[in-house]
Structures are given as C-alpha cells and as structure tokens.
Specification:
- The mean pLDDT is about 95.
- It contains nine helices and seven strands; from the N terminus they run αααβαβαβαβαβαββα.
- It has about 280 residues and is an alpha/beta fold.
- It is globular, with a radius of gyration of 18 Å.
- Strands 3-2-1-4-5-7-6 form a seven-stranded mixed sheet, sandwiched between helices.
- The longest helix has 16 residues.
C-alpha cells in the first residue's frame, strides 16, 4: 500500500517545487552568480537551499553549475531511490538537465519512471531509469549500455556501502562535479571499509561501511578533483574537477567541513567499530 501511495500521490506532495515561479527564481539567482565579479561571489557554504535534495545541496550545485555556465547538463545519480528526492531533480526540473538514475529497488524504479514520465521539464524528455544492484565491477558497463560516456555535468553517489570503491572504478565518464557521501563517523582517520561486492546496508553494523572524508578526498585528488564544499552536516562532500573554476571556487580542507556539532556525536559511534578491519590507500 505504501508503494502505491508514493507512486500515485507523490506529485501532490512536490507540486509546489516544480512551479514556473520557482524556475524563474532560480534563473534570476543563476544570473546574479554569473554576472558577479570574483570579489562579489559568495562562499559556496552561503549558497545552499533545499528543494529536492536531502539537505541544502540543491543550492550549492546550482551555484557551481551557474559559474560553469551550465556547459554540460547531463547527470548520473545512483542510490536516490525514485529520483524525486535527489541531487539531480532540481537540475532536471528547473535547469533542463537530463540523465540516468540507477537503483536496486524495483519499486523505486517503477515509481520514478511513472513520476517523470508524467511530470517533465521543458525539454519534455524523462530521465533514464535502470534497476540494478551496483558494484565496482558492473558500474562502467551500466553507464555504457545506457549511452552515458565522456564528460557529464554531475555524478552523485550515495549507496550506503561501497561508494568509495565504485567511484574508484568509474572510468567511462568524466564529471565536472561529483557529490558523494563520506563517513564522518570516521573523523579525521584515513580509513576505508574493505570492498565487499555483496554488501547490503546495514551489513553487520550500520556504521561499518564507506570511507572517511580524508580517504575519499585522497581518492578524489588521484582522480583529478578537488574538495570545494559539503552539506552543512559535513558528510555529503562536493568535488570539482581540478581544471574548472580555479579562480572562482577555492579548495577547502576536510577539517573545515567537519565543524558541525553533530560530527562529534557521529564520531562517538565509531568507538564501537574502531578495532574492526580497515584499509588505507
């Protein structure tokens, strides 16, 4: 019953978010960013707002893509359930992005296809939805089989498990911006939970998965990205390809993003699993 309520009634919950007035508001905001001098640009931490995203990622992504002049309007996102409450939906509805959603939940994929086939952006084309359990071994094939290679605008990863290992393996797309969940419970330790292709959350402990912010940022740098921001709570890290916006967007430190009081509470949970197996790369 819950699935069918979500499928058929979701529009009534989110319809205020897809109105033309919201599109106009965001286009005005994008124009302000694009017309500002470097000295007038806000810090990325000041640009957040939440419309479809989990937290205030919508505003921060809009800021980056505005400064990039929306030069690539393709997204790939996996781990976002039906795609409605995601990091890509705002870009889809208000800025004519399009792309690929992947999730292992067949009911979520059904709901996403239903919703986006009936509520589309100005281009009138729904995103591609693919049902698949994601591993480091199959991710590139999933992209290629569905026609996604080369440069894209946004890559969003949140699968509560092998996020680090899957991003490490991705080679067929080159995103401008990557947003990925890190495990702030691990604090400033440089550690990664070993790869398990059959991992399914919560595994043997709900906090024993993923990679620390330090480890994820080291991977980002190896792949040619720099850390530029995060959500306010400090676990959804935002990376920008190192050849982009060098003057406009400063690189930030991991430590500067872990200042929210909730991080201390999160790190206390690490005590229960601190002696378990971890790797460093």
């Amino acid at each position: 019953m819950k699935h069918y309520l979500k499928k058929y009634l979701k529009y009534y919950k989110v319809r205020s978010r897809v109105q033309k007035t919201e599109t106009e508001r965001q286009h005005t905001l994008a124009d302000q960013y694009q017309n500002a001098s470097i000295n007038e640009l806000p810090k990325i931490a000041e640009t957040g707002f939440q419309l479809f995203s989990q937290f205030e990622e919508d505003g921060k992504l809009l800021y980056l893509f505005s400064l990039l002049n929306f030069s690539n309007r393709t997204f790939i996102e996996f781990g976002a359930d039906d795609g409605i409450n995601s990091n890509s939906a705002n870009l889809y509805f208000h800025h004519n992005f399009n792309g690929l959603f992947i999730d292992g939940n067949p009911k979520a994929i059904e709901r996403g296809r239903y919703f986006f086939s009936r509520h589309q952006n100005e281009d009138g084309k729904a995103p591609v939805f693919v049902e698949s359990f994601i591993t480091a071994e199959n991710i590139n094939t999933l992209f290629k089989e569905n026609g996604f290679t080369g440069e894209i605008g946004l890559l969003s990863i949140d699968i509560d498990g092998n996020d680090y290992w899957v991003w490490k393996s991705i080679g067929v797309v080159q995103p401008q911006v990557v947003i990925i969940e890190t495990h702030n419970e691990f604090g400033m330790n440089d550690i990664i939970v070993p790869y398990d292709p059959e991992y399914f959350y919560p595994g043997k402990h709900p906090d024993y998965h993923g990679a620390s912010p330090i480890a994820m940022t080291k991977l980002a740098e190896k792949k040619g990205y720099r850390l530029v921001g995060a959500n306010e709570l400090g676990f959804n890290f935002i990376y920008l390809r190192e050849d982009l916006l060098k003057d406009e967007i400063p690189t930030v430190t991991v430590e500067s993003l872990l200042q929210h009081p909730s991080n201390k509470e999160a790190q206390q949970r690490f005590e229960a699993i601190k002696d378990w197996d971890y790797v460093t790369e």
